[in-house]
Amino acid sequence: MLKVIAQDFIHPDHIETVMPLYKELVEKTRQEPLCLSYELFVDHKDPGHFIFIETWPDRAALDMHCATEHFQRLVPQINGYQSQPGQFLLMDACAGTEALAAWTAVPVL
Amino acid sequence: MLKVIAQDFIHPDHIETVMPLYKELVEKTRQEPLCLSYELFVDHKDPGHFIFIETWPDRAALDMHCATEHFQRLVPQINGYQSQPGQFLLMDACAGTEALAAWTAVPVL
C-alpha cells in the first residue's frame, strides 16, 4: 500500500481559476479502478496551499494515474498557476503501527 | 473536520529507539474517543522522516489530544531524538471536493 502527499502552491490571484480543475481532477481520479482514496485539503494558514492525500495499491497504480488523460490534461494547466514548485512525498505505513482497515474500509464514491 | 499532517525528522542513529515510543503513541491516541484517524507513515526516501496523518472533529479535539498524559509524556521523549524541528500542517477539506464518508466510514480499532 502506497500513501502519497502531494502539495501544490497556487498564486493567490488564481485560486478561483484552479478550483474547477481540481474538482474535475478529484472526481475523475476517484473513478480510477485502482484509486483507494484521493482527498484534497487546503492549509488553514494559506488559501493557495493545496494538499492531496492519496492511497494507491502500489507504485504501478500511481504511475497509471499519472498517465491518465485527466491527469495529463489537468495537472499542466494547474501547474501554470503555481507560485512555487509542488512537493511530493511517497510513504509506507510505519511497521507495527498499521491501522487495520484504515484505508480499505468502504470505497469512497 | 480537521485534518493534520505532522512530520518528524529523527536522527538515523535513534530510529530504533523511537519506534516503541511511536507505537505506544499511536495505540493510545487511537483509544481517545475523539480520534477519528491517526496513522503513521515513513518516507520512502528517508527512514528517519516520519509522517502522521490525523483526523479530528475540530481544533478543540486536537488540543485535548495534545494535553493527554500519553502525548505529554511521549512526544518530548521522541523530540529528544530529532535531527530537525517537526512540521505541522492543519487543513480543511477543499470545498467542493469532499469525499462523503471518507473519514467517517468505519472506526479504526
Descriptive report:
Two copies of one chain form a homodimer. With 109 residues, chain A is an alpha+beta fold. Chain A has one domain (2-91): Alpha-Beta Plaits, CATH 3.30.70.100. Chain A is built from three helices and four strands, in the order βαββααβ. Chain A has helices at 15-30, 59-66, 69-79, and strands at residues 2-10, 37-43, 46-56, 82-93. Chain A has a four-stranded antiparallel beta sheet. In chain A, β2 and β3 (46-56) form a beta hairpin. In chain A, α1 runs antiparallel to α3. The radius of gyration of chain A is 14 Å and the shape is globular. The two termini of chain A are 19 Å apart. Mean pLDDT of chain A is 92; it is low at 101-109.
Give the helices and strands, then pairings.
Two copies of one chain form a homodimer.
Chain A: E1 2-10, H1 15-30, E2 37-43, E3 46-56, H2 59-66, H3 69-79, E4 82-93
Antiparallel strand pairs in A: 1-3, 1-4, 2-3
Helix pairs in contact in A: 1-3
Our count of domains of chain A comes out at 1
Specify the helix fraction band of chain A: 25-40%
Question: CATH first level of chain A: which class?
Answer: Alpha Beta
Number of helices of chain A: 3
**Could you give the count of β-strands of chain A?**
4
| Strand ordering within the main sheet of chain A | 2-3-1-4
> In angstroms, what separates the terminal alpha carbons of chain A?
19 Å
Largest interface summary: A-B, 36 and 36 residues
Radius of gyration of chain A over alpha carbons?
A: 14 Å
Q: Major beta sheet of chain A, specifics?
A: 4 strands, antiparallel
- Overall pLDDT of chain A: 92
